[in-house]
Amino acid sequence: MIRQSTKTDRELYLKYLDLCGANPSSYKLQDYYDSTVFYEKLWVADRQQQVDAINKINHFDGMCYILVKFDGNERVEDYTFLNNLIVYWDHSKEAKRIKRIKKVRSRMKS
Q1: Do the Cβ atoms of 104 and 75 come closer than 8 Å?
Q2: Which residue, 55, 73, 86, 110, shows the most beta carbons closer than 10 Å to its own?
C-alpha cells in the first residue's frame, strides 16, 4: 500500500527550489497556466542543467514566474524528481520593482 502525501504541489516546489539554491526573491510560483504569455522549459534533469537553470533564475533582472506542474512521475509522495521547470520571464518595470522590494524586505528582516 502506497502512503498518500500530505504536502501540496506548491510546498514540494518550494522545497525543491530551496534545496537547489534558488533565491526566494527571484521567483514566484504560479498555479495556473496563462495562454497569453510565452513559457520556456528549463531542463533540470542532471546536476549541471540544474545549476545553470538556478543561476539563470537568480541572476535574472526581472521577475521569474514558475508554473507548478508535474509531468508524469516527477512527484513521488513527499519528494520531487523534476525533469524541467516551466518558466515565464517578466521583463517589465513593475516586475523589476517587485524584485527590488522583496530584496529590501528580506534584508530588513535579517
Answers
A1: no
A2: 86
Q: What residue has cell string 529590501?
A: 104
Contacting residues for 10 by C-beta, under 8 A, at least 6 apart: 29, 31, 68
What pLDDT digit, counting tens, does each position of 9-63 carry?
999 999 999 999 999 888 999 998 888 889 999 999 999 999 999 999 999 888 8
The C-alpha atoms of residue 19 and residue 13 are separated, in whole angstroms, by 10
Residue 57, judged by CB atoms within 10 A of its CB (0-12, 13-18, 19+), counts as buried
Query: Do the bridges between strand 84-90 and strand 40-43 make them parallel or antiparallel, or are there none, so unpaired?
Result: antiparallel
For 18, the grid coordinates are: 530551496
